[in-house]
Amino acid sequence: MSTSRPTEEKLQKVLAAVGLASRRVVEGYILDERITVNGEIAHIGQRVNRDKDELSFDGVPLRVNPELVYYLLHKPKGVISTANDPQGRKTVTDLVPAAPRVYPVGRLDKDTEGLLLITNDGDLTYRLTHPSQGVEKEYLVELSQKVSRGNLRQLREGIELEDGITSPAKVSQIQDGIIKIVIHEGRNRQVRRMFQVIGHPVKRLIRTRIGNMVDHTLQSGQWRQLTTIDLLHFETDQATE
Question: Cis (ω within 30 of 0) for the bond into 86?
Fold first, then answer.
């Protein structure tokens, strides 16, 4: 007997199955015209194909294709942010399930720790990495000494690097030598280079947020699979920026 999923399923069943809400609540969303299918207002009992149809809630895409997976990983120090490494070093994809094949979204250098999204969703990867999208990334930076007000101002206004001046950053000194910095660019080793220019080599660097994605429960090397609700909240946050 075949156990494959039907080609088409009732819309409210699909949305309930991926965790948007209970069927009763989902039906209310449909009646309130908050759900669209391929850009058209949905209706109760409508049948959809998860693999092909584009579903949205309040104009925000709902990712319901079961072939797409999303892992939020707390990358440890010493692990390479790539799907494979010619030198045989441990990579971030070694830390998540082997199938389906996935790729890291952007990169954290070998010595940087913290949050990294790993997925096989090319559309979301584009949204997170293309410069025009301006997705915020927040880091905690550990230094050997306090940073002066003048240097903090430099970081906020932009630092001249070999590949051009950086965009203004949000910067605060939580305590002497511990800085929180938020940037929306994705240049190679950017945060480390910014602090090198002002004379403060980075001792430890941890990414703590991507857009509105945070998870303080993940320990180094741990990951969790993101749900449809996680992704909806992320997409909503990006749409309102």
Answer: no
Interval 134-174: pLDDT, tens: 789 999 999 999 999 999 999 999 999 999 999 999 999 99
Q: State the residue for tokens 């319901």.
A: 64
Neighbours of 30 (CB within 10 A): 21
54 three-state secondary structure: coil
Amino acid at 155: L
Residues 46/55/224/134 CA torsion (nearest 10 deg): -170
Q: Any catalytic annotation for residue 163? A: no
Helix (H) or strand (E) holding 223: strand 223-225
8 Å CB contact between 208 and 138: yes
**Cα angle, residue 69 at apex, residues 95 and 138 outer, rounded to 5°:** 70
Contacts from 91-96 at CB under 8 Å and sequence distance 24+?
A: 92/116, 92/118, 93/118, 95/221, 95/223, 96/71, 96/223
Phi, psi of 27 (to 5 degrees): -60, -35
Residue in 53, 58, 85, 109 annotated catalytic: 109
| DSSP state letters, 202-218 | -SEEEEEEETTB--TTP
73-to-107, 110, 133, 180 alpha-carbon distances in Å = 12, 14, 22, 20
- Model pTM? 0.86
Residue 30 is given by DSSP the state: H
Task: Give SS3 for 39.
Answer: coil
Which residues neighbour 127 within 8 Å (Cβ) at sequence distance 6 or greater?
Answer: 133, 135, 238
